[in-house]
Amino acid sequence: MIGSGVSIVAASMVRFGERFESSYEDLMVDVWNALLADPEGDLTPDRVEAAWLSTALGGLIRREAVTGASLADPLNFYPRPVTRIENACAGGSDAIRNAAFAIAAGIYDVVLVLGVEKMRDLPTKASLIAQRGTMSHLWWHPRGATSPYLFGQHATVMMEQGRITREDMALVSVKNHDHGVLNPNAFMRKPVTVEQVLASPPICEPLTVLDCCPTTDGAAALILCRSELAHQFTSAPVELVATGLATDTMYSHTKPIFGEQAGPTRAALDAYKMAGIAPSDIDVAELHDCFTVAELLAYEDLGFCERGGASAWLRSGAPSLGGSLPCNPSGGLLSKGHPIGATGVAQLCEIFWQLRGEAGERQVEGARIGLTHNVGGNGQVTCVNIAQRM
Known about the structure:
By secondary structure, the protein is α/β, with parallel strands linked by helices. The chain has two domains: about 5-125 and about 215-235, Peroxisomal Thiolase, Chain A, domain 1 (3-Layer(aba) Sandwich), CATH 3.40.47; about 145-215 and about 240-390, Peroxisomal Thiolase, Chain A, domain 1. About 35% of the residues lie in helices and about 20% in strands. It contains 13 helices and eleven strands. It has helices spanning about 25-35, 60, 70-75, 90-105, 125-130, 145-160, 165-180, 195-200, 260-275, 290-300, 310-315, 330-335, 340-355; strands spanning about 5-15, 50-55, 80-85, 110-115, 200-205, 205-210, 220-225, 240-245, 285, 370-375, 380-390. Strands 3-2-4-7-1-8-11-10-9 form a nine-stranded mixed sheet, sandwiched between helices. Strands 5-6 form a two-stranded antiparallel ribbon. A hairpin with a 4-residue loop joins β10 (about 370-375) and β11.
């Protein structure tokens, strides 16, 4: 368990999508106000002692410095401390991890974690160019390397080994878009068919448009506190019981193997050990499905099925709503969207609502333990968080 007990007592997110009507600051203010509007408990702004801000591309896209003051200004949070976290796509989960450690260490009683990203203000091509600048600063690394290219290599190897088929990847997209239809905060709320996925425009062989998550605007927020105080804020707190963070090389030519990822596997093992549970104890999971093949990788990396068993596990219906371990009931990144700094926070928002029985049509019945899996780069950095209904 994490120290002396850390609980999640409130969660909020704004609708993900093309939020042209809202600025970066507007999204932060809206998600903060949504937290405070929760009628349950005694959550007022003055009770929050510190904050962690997760954002990845703000400085690149906005061409300005992004610091803790970027949150303190719009939220009138002065003079309280705000720490900005950037850890690639895993920044939101790592912000939660760092905030939880501060509570467990006895530094703070009540804190805010807020993730935000504004990616659609630039055309898609320009946004990708901005992101590519974050890939590497080493002279020998291929400057044209993009995320679809890196994950396409995993897909190619897994297909050549007979572990997955092109249709398996399409089925992941179908499943998550079906789930996303049920989520009013999701970006892409339309079902797709296997045929549509296969026929969508190619991005990087074998990945097509509908194998890839969309660039997205969005924000999500959580309130964490010492578990002894949790019932001051809610009658149904959720305890954050474990967190694991691991790193690995993201560069193709230094990876010892394709078709599995060492970083996510290690982060999951550390989190399971901290929580004192096994993969079979997980009831619901939010996975980092930046690409369809990434979710298939996650099934095996997290121990939900054996190595080489992702295809059979997917086709058994286990990761679908109504299955034994529903994955991405929110719609995942493929449907909900992927505003990088907000993604890990939004994943835990979904788990919070699932464990409290508040997920509406996408509710996983009897969910008691939930997991989030948040990957940056090609397995470069991964954070796995586990929460449990108290």
